Amino acid sequence: MSQSAYIKLVKGSKDLQLTLQDVQDALLRYREMTALTGKQLGWDYENAAFPYTIETQGDERWFYLKGVTSPYKHIIIGTAETTTVGGDPVRCVQVVLPEESTHGDKSKANELCKYIAKSWLAELTMFNGRTVYYNPRK
Fold it and tell me: How many domains does the chain have?
């Protein structure tokens, strides 16, 4: 059975609108940051931190990350709209681990979700159902 995590853009987030391109840009920014870290450390940290290629199928609602090394297979990422407890519509990113995904995929997906949610000041519902609030709540 597949597992899902959700990154929700709620009140207090940097932006309340998002596109699939925004998610891809965030992943590319993550990859660039790890490449710079690797350059400072003198080793290929980029491929260890982001062992995927971004693959699109022509659908504007989702794309997937395809693993380039053996312990990683794939992660599916898409955008959607969901409702909150108050009934308000909220834009979100759904990160799905299909049945074929490995423990390595789950670890990387958790890491990527935390990075994106923190940079967007969003609310993150992780694969285990726990919620992490990166948005300012008053």
Answer: 1
